[in-house]
Amino acid sequence: MHYANQNAAQRAIAKGAGRVPSWTCDRNKIEEFVLVIQNLAMRRGVPQLFLSGILIKDEIFTHIVHYAGAMEQQGASFNEQKMAVSDLLVGYWNDGRP
After folding, report:
1. Number of structural domains, the chain?
2. pLDDT tens digits for range 58-90
3. Residue 52 belongs to what domain range?
């Protein structure tokens, strides 16, 4: 189900249907989100320096938040959203992006 949610979220983002998730009004949730996505990505070999560099870019941060929102719209939990975004970050690293 997680991968189905990811695929649906990717299609929504590609169509420009991104939205912010419900937790973006909660500073503690935002801090948790950023910390966890970085830690999950680093456990899979993504360097902290790379993550710090891309997460400060407004365009990229907006994209990953909208991706989390699209995941939420598919019914994904907060934990599933964090896992999906960390997968996205690992993909950026592996593809030599952004």
Report:
1. 1
2. 999 999 999 999 989 889 999 999 999 999 999
3. 2-95
